[in-house]
Every structure is written in structure tokens, then in C-alpha cells.
TrEMBL record:
Keyword Ion transport: yes
TM helices/strands, residue ranges: 385-407, 419-450, 470-491, 646-664, 694-713, 734-758, 794-813, 820-839, 871-902
Keyword Transmembrane helix: yes
PANTHER family reported in the protein's UniProt record: ANION EXCHANGE PROTEIN, ELECTROGENIC SODIUM BICARBONATE COTRANSPORTER 4
Localisation: Basolateral cell membrane; Membrane
Protein name: Anion exchange protein
Keywords attached to this entry: Cell membrane, Ion transport, Membrane, Sodium, Sodium transport, Transmembrane, Transmembrane helix, Transport
Topology relative to the membrane: Multi-pass membrane protein
Chain segments carrying region Disordered: 157-177
Main location: membrane
Gene Ontology, cellular component aspect: basolateral plasma membrane
SUPFAM superfamilies (UniProt xref): Phoshotransferase/anion transport protein (SSF55804)
Length: 923
């Protein structure tokens, strides 16, 4: 351990947990213009450096400060030889300047006769970048020239004036000006920030540099000293003889850069003497990386990095001996990731095995109860509106699609209306009382296949389907309660990234393939008329034929209208047909409504399939583009963020508008308009007795077991994915509480004859993405930091209440084309693949090594081992996909358990070191 690091251990070791304020640093240089002296702002720092451009009219782009090594050594010398005043009691700049100069005289650094000259220079007016030279008034010019003449008189007499005369030479204002108070730059600085002022200048009355570093006991607003009205805590003054302008500027930039360094600013606040400050500089020097002068252009400004490594590693007393590790070792950052050795798989206290009856459930209730009120009022934010609109559209599309498929599978015992009501009821109850309200409940593919098989079994064995289903639901509810009370969710601790990513990738691919399949179906229902020839457009016609005429002629919708047929039709009156209406003048809708047939080559529209694909890909592409708009260079930050938050809603509105403008008959959203069961011979309540033999009530325990495994695995894997540490959730989760409510809802939905519901992975991930929060007041050049997710219950509740009300919104919803909603489905599927390491590793197969991103696992695991691990995951995914596509999809949950077994077997193929980087070490 270096002596500097050892000294810093003692300074920073007794940390009082009081956060160090953000420091805003301003560097002013002394300007000589026609005998007039004035301090002019030349650079500023919050995190990164901004310079006043040579033209003096604007600030440069924020950039990483590139310092010369020589300037840092010169700064160290300045701190060794200059005066250091720590915890100075100061309330105004003149008083502080007096104390600084008196200390220099007392230390024998300057002769007493220079006091007035130095004080005069230090109390000149400060011109900030907000004030342009052209705006200076005649009174200011007169005042400045008057002050300059006084300076000349002082220099000529070369004798100290009295105290009152010195004070009359003050040119700096005592209170902040209007420009300072109105400066918009304040928005970029945190509220608790304090200022550090660096004053650099050349004067002709000094023979050696005048250096002083001051820390005030209390941060004080010193009038016109700082560009923004931020209280000053630190002052660094360097005045020296002529001829070293560049050297002085570099020293000023060096101390300014140090002041915004997280570790040095801590040292500056806690330093007890000169040696502590020098130790802080030495520690900074230990970590400085030097760029060789012949291998880069010093004129190039280095862009701020997208992610800055955490300063906690440097501040940690335990890790001070590891400071200064270079790129490629465990201390640096790689590819935007924290390149520390990954911690073993840890799901925390939420899945602790209590060993008590219902212990886990009780702990979940205790954990979530204190947050309940904040879960409601945290939802009152504009971001919640965009999340509600996005997830609502996803939910109703899912409910309609699933309801339609369920209606086909169960002969309309459950249909779109049951799907809407069930989604609204189950979702609302879960979001009100569940342990993780960010989870969105929905129906899943395996449940649909189970329902289909159960209906076919009931039909072939003369068993009442709804009554049997009710008993399966009740047994499954009971089994869920047993799992909850026995802390069975503990098994999820053995689920690593390998299983999570396999499951979430599969669900994402299902969403993507379903969206594309549905669009491919558009070509079947709305085929492109390949026989359409523009040159023969004059011969195309489409006529509406009365039903009697069409049956006489044996015509169908697609039959072309020949001349012979037309002759027969013209003489149709001979067939004693009384023509009350003019069929030839009817619209397409009227013709079909009255039972007529459309006949002719022009009856087929070649546009609908093409228009559907334009709506589909247009919605997806526009959503992706607008989502990324917050990283654009155009428009203010707030507007960019608003556009990004409402990207899905704006895309949907845009393409719904385009569809209405075109007026084409594209497939639209069909919502039930009456509140009644899909099948007329069933009510809203299923009776448990009377239709099946008594032994079926007991036998249904066996199929219920399969449903329970399905529910348990689907629910808990989705919960693990939602609660993963990357989402930075702060309110904890409730695996046991979630499963308890899913069990309750199983029983309720079974009694009402509604579909069964479980956590929907893709929609839940989309819900979390739509509620992500980023730091608001980021410093210039600093990328907004991901702060976590807006955890609340309000968005979920509103989504499901709106889903229930959709029956009454049918007149509005009927204008939304289905291809637009399939575009939203495609976006959900693709977006949920983002951030999955498995997906990044698949892309590595297609990249030459020199173009591969600098991922942390590539630094520590050989590429062939990475490819082998990815290949195993791909094979598992392919097996799951094949199973899902057949009747074996009913054992899908058991296959998820199989993934956990495969992961255990990987311990034999890979070392624990490799698995730690590629996956998680099993507990």
C-alpha cells in the first residue's frame, strides 16, 4: 500500500455516512484589456469539462479533461509551497481575500507592501459566459476605466493606501445578478451542490507565484463570483509573473478536474492539513493513465463515456490497495458492465426456507404491507399514462386472440367475452393484493392446450366439461395453497440465468412468431390478385347479383362475369323475379347483407394484404425509432423523453389514422358489444354437483396436479425474471403471496367458467420497461443513469379496469386494425430479448473476433467455451420449441424443470470459474 493510500484510509475510514455534495467548479482567468483588469470565465466542470470556445460566443461540448502530467506535478508543488486555509470563517469576498493575503504575509510568502495590489486584483469584476461583451453599459465602462486609473496611481506611488481606499476599489458585486439567478444551467446542477472557484492570472508586480487553497467552514454565496448562484466552499488562487500563461492555465485545469473527482472531493472536504491534500493528489496520480504524445491528437476532445465506473470501488478502504489496476484486469469496466468477479447466485431473503407452516407467506405480507400506500401514490406520474395505454393494448389483443382460440377449442363454452371478463377480474385482484404488482396476468399457450384436451376428453366420455373443469380448478387451488404453506417456492433458488434465459427467450420467440404467423394469414384471407393487369383495367367490372339469379346461373363469388352470363342476367325478368331494388347500384356491404353475390374480376382487392403489412411493419419500426428518440440530438431533453415514453401510443395513433385515411377494409379489432356468455346455454356461475358421477370429483385431483405444476413453474419463473437484480426493485417481492392469489383466482375463475390466468412473461417485461426511471438532472455530457422502476399498483389496476370496460368501448376500439396490434406484439417480443446475455452470445457466432463487443465474460472465458455453452442453450431451446408445437405442450412445465437438471449437469462440462461468468454458481 502506498503512503498516500495509507493516509487516505485514516481520512476516509471514519465515514459519517453524510454524502459529499456535488461540486460545480468554475475557472476564471484574469484579462488585461487596455489597462483594464477583469476576471473572465474560461471553463466549468460538473462532471466533465466545458470550455468557452475561442470565439467567446458559446460553450464547447462536454468532454473528458485531458491533463498534462507536468501540470499535476506543478499543482502538487503549488500545494506544498502555497498557503492552505482550511475551515476559514468567511462571509464576504473582501473579508476572505483579506484573510488569504494576511496569511501569505504571516507565512513570509509575500512582502506586506503587495497586500493592496493583490487585494485589488482579486476583487475585480467577474464576467461570465452568460454576459456578452457587447451588453456592457457605458456606466460599466466608465467604472472600469476609473478603477484602472486608480490602479495606475497605486502602482506609480508604489505605497500602500489606507483601508477605506482599498475597499472603494471593490468592483465585484455583493449579491448575485439577475443573469446569475435566471441562468438555465442551474437545472443541470443538483440542489445540494457547492461551488469551487479557481482564479488564474498574470500580474507584473509579482516575482514568484502567489498560491492559496481555501476551504470555507460554511459554503457561502459570494455575490458575482460564480456563474450560477451556488454557495462557494473552495477557492484556489494562482497569480504569477508574466510569461507562463499556458502553464498557469494547465495548473488551474488540473485542480478544477481534481475538485470534481469523486475521491479527491471527499479528501478536500475531510482534509485536516496540507499533507492530506497532497496525499489526495498522489492517489489521483497513482490512477492517472498517460496517453503517449505521438499516438493521439491532443486537439481531439474525448467524448464522455456512456457509463462511468462507480467511485465506490476507489473509496472502499478495503480496496485501496488495488488502486491503479489497468484495463484488462478485474478492476476495470468492460463493455458497459461492472467487470467485478460475479457474485454467486443470490435471490435474497425473499426465498428463504423458514421451515414454519406458512412462514414464507407471512414474511411476504410483512415485507409488502409497509409499501402499500406508496404503491398507490407512486403511480401518479405522466409516465404511468403511457405504460397503461401500452399494456392495455397488449392485454386486449392477447384477450381477443386467446378468447378466439379458446372458443374454437371448447365449442364456445369459453370465448372472447369470458376472456375479457376473466382478464379484468383476475388482473385487478392480483394487482390490488399480489406481492409483485408489476406482474401482468394473462392466459398462456400450455393452458390453452390443456383446455382443448380436457374438452375433447369430456366430449368423448360423456362428462360435463364445465363441472369437471370446476373440480380441477378447486383441486389445483388447494394444491397451490399446500405449495405456499410449505414454502415450496424455495426451489426457485436453483433457477439460474441458464433456465431464466431459456424460458424468457422461448416466450419472446413465441410472441414474434405468432405476430408474423397472424400476418402471413392475411395473405390467405386477403389474397393478392396476381392476375390483375393494369393494361386491361377497362375490361374489369364487379356486379352485385341477386340471390335468385346467382343460383339459376350457378355462380359463386369468385366466378368471372362472361358475356353469356351477362345476357342471361339482362333477360332475368323472364324468370318472374320481381326486382324491388336496383342491385347494380348497391354497395359491397349492402349486397352481401341482402344475400347477393359479387361477381367479376375487379371484386378482388389487391391492396388489403399489402396495406396490412405496411401497418404491421410501420407500427413496429416507428415504435422502435421513437423509443430510441431520447438519445437523439434534436429537441430539449423533456420533449425527447416524453416522445420516447409515448412511442407506442403515438405509433398506434399514427397508423390507425393512416388506415382511416386510406379507407380500406383491413381486418379490425372485434370486441363483444353485449355483456353475456358466448354460449347461450350457460350462465355466469358453474354448479359443482349434479351432472357428473361423484367419483369424478375425486379423480379430477390427478389432472389438477398437472395444472398446478404448469401454474407454479409459469408463475415463479416469470416472477424471477421480473425481480432480477438488474431491474433495481426496492420494494421487495412476494413469491408465496403471488402464488396464493393465483390459487384463489383459479377457484374463482373455475366457478364463473372463466379462463385460468398466470404471470405473462413478455407483457410483464414490457410493463417494467415502460416504467423505467432515469436520473433527471444529469450533468452536461453525463448519460442519464438508470435508477430503477416506478414500482406501484396503479398502472396494473387501470389496465385491467379498462380491459373490463372494453365491452363499452367497442365503438372506438373497432377502428383499430389488427395488423397494428400485431406490430405491438412484435415489438414486445423483440424488446424483451434486449439485455438477455444468451441473445448477445448467439450474435457472437456471426461476428469475427475483432468486431466482438468487449463483454466481461469474453475477458475471462475462452471463446470456444462461450460458444459451447450457447450451443447447449440453443439445443434446449429447440427441444422446448418442438414440444410446444405438439400435443406434448401439456408437459411443458416439466421440461422447464428439465432445464434445471441440464444446468446441474453442466457442472461436469464447465469449471465453476467459467459458470460464474456465463451463468450463476448454484447455491
Amino acid at each position: 500500500v502506498s503512503p498516500a493510500a495509507e493516509r487516505l484510509r485514516h481520512i476516509l475510514g471514519d465515514d459519517d455516512n453524510v454524502p459529499t455534495p456535488t461540486i460545480f467548479t468554475e475557472m476564471d482567468t484574469l484579462q488585461h484589456e487596455g489597462g483594464e483588469l477583469e476576471w473572465k470565465e474560461s471553463a466549468r466542470w460538473v462532471k466533465f469539462e466545458e470550455k468557452v470556445e475561442e470565439g467567446g460566443e458559446r460553450w464547447s461540448k462536454p468532454h473528458v479533461s485531458t491533463l498534462t502530467l507536468h501540470s499535476l506535478f506543478e499543482l502538487r508543488t503549488c500545494l506544498q509551497t502555497g498557503s492552505i486555509l482550511l475551515d476559514l470563517e468567511g462571509y464576504s469576498l473582501p473579508q476572505i481575500v483579506d484573510d488569504i493575503v494576511d496569511r501569505q504575509i504571516a507565512d513570509g510568502l509575500i512582502p506586506p507592501e503587495l497586500k493592496e495590489k493583490i487585494s485589488f486584483v482579486l476583487l475585480r469584476k467577474h464576467r461570465h459566459q452568460t454576459k456578452k461583451p457587447i451588453h456592457r453599459s457605458l456606466a460599466d465602462l466608465g467604472k472600469s476605466s476609473n478603477a484602472a486609473s486608480k490602479l495606475l496611481l497605486t502602482e506609480m506611488s508604489d505605497s500602500p493606501t489606507d483601508h477605506s481606499q482599498s475597499r472603494s476599489m471593490n468592483d465585484i458585486s455583493d449579491t448575485p445578478s439577475t443573469d446569475q439567478l435566471k441562468n438555465k444551467f442551474m437545472k443541470k446542477i443538483p440542489r445540494d451542490a457547492e461551488a469551487s472557484n479557481v482564479l488564474i492570472g498574470e500580474v507584473d508586480f509579482l516575482e514568484k507565484p502567489f498560491v492559496s487553497f481555501v476551504r470555507l467552514a460554511q459554503a457561502t454565496t459570494l455575490g458575482g463570483l460564480t456563474e450560477v448562484p451556488v454557495p462557494t466552499r473552495f477557492l484556489f488562487i494562482l497569480l504569477g509573473p508574466h510569461g507562463k500563461t499556458k502553464s498557469y492555465n494547465e495548473i488551474g485545469r488540473a485542480i478544477a478536474t481534481l475538485m470534481v473527482d469523486d475521491l479527491f472531493s471527499d479528501v478536500a472536504y475531510k482534509a485536516r492539513d496540507r499533507e492530506d491534500l497532497i496525499a489526495g493528489v498522489d492517489e489521483f496520480l497513482d490512477e492517472v493513465i498517460v496517453l503517449p504524445p505521438g499516438e493521439w491528437d491532443p486537439k481531439i476532445r474525448i467524448e464522455p463515456p456512456k457509463k462511468v465506473p462507480s467511485a465506490e470501488m476507489r473509496k472502499s478502504v478495503m480496496n485501496l490497495n488495488e488502486l491503479g489496476q489497468m484495463n484488462g484486469s478485474a478492476g476495470g469496466a468492460a463493455g458497459g458492465e461492472d467487470d467485478e468477479f460475479p457474485a454467486p447466485h443470490e435471490l435474497g431473503e425473499e426465498l428463504k426456507f423458514t421451515g414454519r407452516f406458512g412462514g414464507g407467506l407471512w414474511l411476504d405480507i410483512k415485507r409488502k404491507a409497509p409499501w402499500y400506500c406508496s404503491d398507490i401514490y407512486d403511480g401518479f406520474h405522466i409516465q404511468s399514462i403511457s405504460a397503461v395505454l401500452f399494456i392495455y393494448l397488449g392485454c386486449i389483443t392477447n384477450a381477443i386472440t386467446f378468447g378466439g382460440l379458446l372458443g374454437d377449442a371448447t365449442d364456445n363454452y369459453q370465448g372472447v367475452m369470458e376472456s375479457f371478463l376473466g382478464t379484468a377480474l383476475a388482473g385487478t385482484v392480483f394487482c390490488f393484493f399480489g406481492g409483485q404488482p408489476l406482474i401482468i396476468l394473462s392466459s398462456t399457450g400450455p393452458i390453452l392446450i390443456f383446455e382443448k384436451l380436457l374438452y375433447e376428453f369430456s366430449k368423448s366420455n360423456d362428462v360435463d366439461y364445465m363441472e369437471l373443469r370446476l373440480w380441477i380448478g378447486l383441486h389445483s387451488c388447494l394444491q397451490c395453497f399446500i405449495l405456499v404453506l410449505s414454502d415450496a417456492s424455495y426451489i426457485i433458488k436453483y433457477m439460474t440465468r441458464f433456465t431464466e434465459e431459456g424460458f424468457s427467450s422461448l416466450i419472446s420467440f413465441i410472441f414474434i412468431s405468432d405476430a408474423i404467423k397472424k400476418m402471413a394469414g392475411a395473405l390467405k384471407y386477403y389474397p393478392i390478385n396476381r392476375g390483375f393487369k393494369p393494361d386491361y383495367i377497362t375490361s374489369y367490372k364487379c356486379d352485385c347479383i341477386p340471390p335468385d339469379q346467382s343460383s339459376v346461373l350457378g355462380l359463386n363469388v369468385s366466378a368471372p362475369l362472361s358475356d353469356d352470363n351477362m345476357t342471361l342476367l339482362v333477360s332475368g325478368k323472364k324468370n318472374n323475379y320481381i326486382n324491388y331494388t336496383n342491385w347494380s347500384q348497391m354497395s359491397k356491404k349492402e349486397c352481401v347483407k341482402n344475400g347477393g353475390l359479387l361477381v367479376g374480376n375487379a371484386c378482388k382487392y389487391p391492396d388489403l394484404a399489402l396495406m396490412s403489412f405496411i401497418l404491421f411493419f410501420g407500427t413496429y419500426s416507428m415504435t422502435v425509432s421513437l423509443k430510441k428518440f431520447k438519445f437523439s440530438r434534436y429537441f430539449p431533453t423533456k420533449l425527447r423523453k416524453l416522445i420516447s415514453d409515448f412511442s407506442i401510443f403515438m405509433s398506434i395513433m399514427c397508423f390507425v389514422g393512416l388506415d382511416m385515411l386510406m379507407g380500406l377494409d383491413t381486418p379490425k379489432l372485434i370486441v363483444p358489444t353485449e355483456f353475456k356468455p358466448t354460449r347461450s346455454d350457460r350462465g355466469w356461475l358453474v354448479m359443482p354437483f349434479g351432472k357428473n358421477p361423484w367419483w369424478w370429483y375425486l379423480a379430477s385431483f390427478v389432472p389438477a396436479l398437472l395444472v398446478t405444476i404448469l401454474i407454479f413453474m409459469d408463475q415463479q419463473i416469470s416472477a424471477v425474471i421480473v425481480n432480477r437484480k438488474e431491474n433495481k426493485l426496492k420494494k421487495g417481492c412476494g413469491y408465496h403471496l403471488d402464488l396464493f392469489w393465483v390459487g384463489v383466482l383459479m377457484a374463482v375463475c373455475s366457478f364463473m367458467g372463466l379462463p385460468w390466468y398466470v404471470a405473462a412473461t413478455v407483457i410483464s417485461i414490457a410493463h417494467i420497461d415502460s416504467l423505467k426511471m432515469e436520473s433527471a438532472s444529469s450533468a452536461p455530457g453525463e448519460q442519464p443513469q438508470f435508477l430503477g422502476v416506478r414500482e406501484q399498483r396503479l398502472t396494473g389496476i387501470l389496465v385491467f379496469v379498462l380491459t373490463g370496460l372494453s365491452v363499452f368501448l367497442a365503438p372506438i376500439l373497432q377502428f383499430i386494425p389488427m395488423p397494428v396490434l400485431y406490430g405491438v406484439f412484435l415489438y414486445m417480443g423483440v424488446a424483451s430479448l434486449g439485455g438477455i446475455q444468451f441473445w448477445e452470445r448467439i450474435k457472437l457466432y456471426l461476428m469475427p473476433p475483432k468486431h466482438q463487443p468487449d463483454f466481461s465474460f469474453l475477458r475471462h472465458v475462452p471463446l470456444r467455451r462461450v460458444h459451447l455453452f450457447t450451443l447447449v442453450q440453443l439445443v434446449c431451446l429447440a427441444v422446448l420449441w418442438i414440444l410446444k408445437s405438439t400435443f406434448l405442450a401439456i408437459i411443458f412445465p416439466v421440461m422447464i424443470l428439465g432445464l434445471m437438471v441440464v444446468r446441474k449437469l453442466l457442472d461436469m462440462m464447465f469449471s465453476q470459474h467459467d459458470l460464474a461468468w456465463l451463468d450463476d454458481i448454484l447455491p
